[in-house]
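Notes from the 1:1 (GR / supervisor)

We went over the backlog. Supervisor wanted to see one worked example end to end before approving the batch request, so GR pasted a single chain during the call. The sequence is below; no edits were made to it. Supervisor asked that the structure be written out right there so they could see what the output format looks like.
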Amino acid sequence: MAGWEKACMAFALAIIVGGTTGPLLAEQPAASQPQPKPVMTEDLLVKFSSDLSEEEIQAINDRLGVEVVDRTRDGRFYQIRVPEPRTLADIQKAYEETSGIEYVERSVRYQIQPEKDDQGSRQ
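Structure output shown during the call:
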């Protein structure tokens, strides 16, 4: 998958899994407004092939010993949490080596943090 395709997929997954609070094509915020800040999570986003049944997907997740945090209605995109002592890198590699996986990346969320004024309080 090309770099721009991955970026588009990550954007789509962020919206599908994380939701959105406003229109996708909203005006760009003014410089004085808080800017979205990417925050890496301890979860993975996994896209399963449409050829896999729900039972096959569950079997893959069970075999890898992960926790399903959320999924889309169509059952193809899953937000996966990796329990200790396993690592994100280990589980990501295991998904990448599994047949029927179209995409797996670390989940990124975007948050807006209010700026602080001169007295240190939040506006």
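Supervisor's comment: The chain has one domain: 3-18+37-112.
Batch request approved.
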